[in-house]
Design goal:
With about 160 residues, the protein is an alpha/beta fold. It contains five helices and four strands, in the order βαβαβαβαα.
């Protein structure tokens, strides 16, 4: 892989919480080196308000964040993807579209904060999901992507998802 801005797609079922958190965080921390996107197999059409609240609290832009279908990333106008990560077990078990360019794929399962009701319990679930994704994304950004062969890179991505 060459030394360029890498396009990363985070997938979830509803694209309302986990994948949105990952997209926003990687765009915030990986500016210039990574461009992150998110999508869902069955998008809810809305971003969880607690997710937006947490991101704003952390100083991370929420501009442009929206719940969208993974179909947006399969056509000729889609950005070429270098990496595709599923962040929920349900999406990982679904038959994904064929991604142009044969991106490196991995599964980074995270418990779903959108499945929690409201109140403080929901806030804690969103915070925990964010902490897990933050650690994994920080590890991912430390990988010497340009100097690893595809097999080694796929193995490192898998290892990050198991932490």
């Amino acid at each position: 892989m060459s030394d360029h801005a890498y396009n990363v797609l985070f997938l979830c079922t509803g694209n309302s919480a986990r994948s949105i958190l990952a997209e926003a965080y990687l765009n915030y921390r990986g500016r210039g080196r990574f461009r992150a996107y998110s999508a869902g197999s069955h998008p809810t059409g809305t971003v969880d308000p607690k997710v937006l609240e947490l991101l704003r609290h952390c100083g991370i832009s929420v501009s442009g964040l929206r719940s969208k279908s993974w179909d947006e990333f399969t056509g000729p106008a889609a950005p070429p993807l270098d990496f595709v990560f599923t962040v929920c077990d349900r999406a990982a078990g679904e038959v994904c579209p064929v991604w142009p360019g044969q991106p490196v794929t991995g599964h980074w399962g995270v418990p779903d904060p959108a499945a929690i009701g409201d109140g403080r319990e929901k806030e804690r679930a969103v915070e925990e999901a964010f902490r897990i994704l933050e650690r994994r994304i920080d590890l991912f950004m430390c990988l010497p992507i340009g100097s690893l062969d595809r097999m080694s890179l796929r193995e490192r991505v898998r290892e990050i998802g198991e932490r």
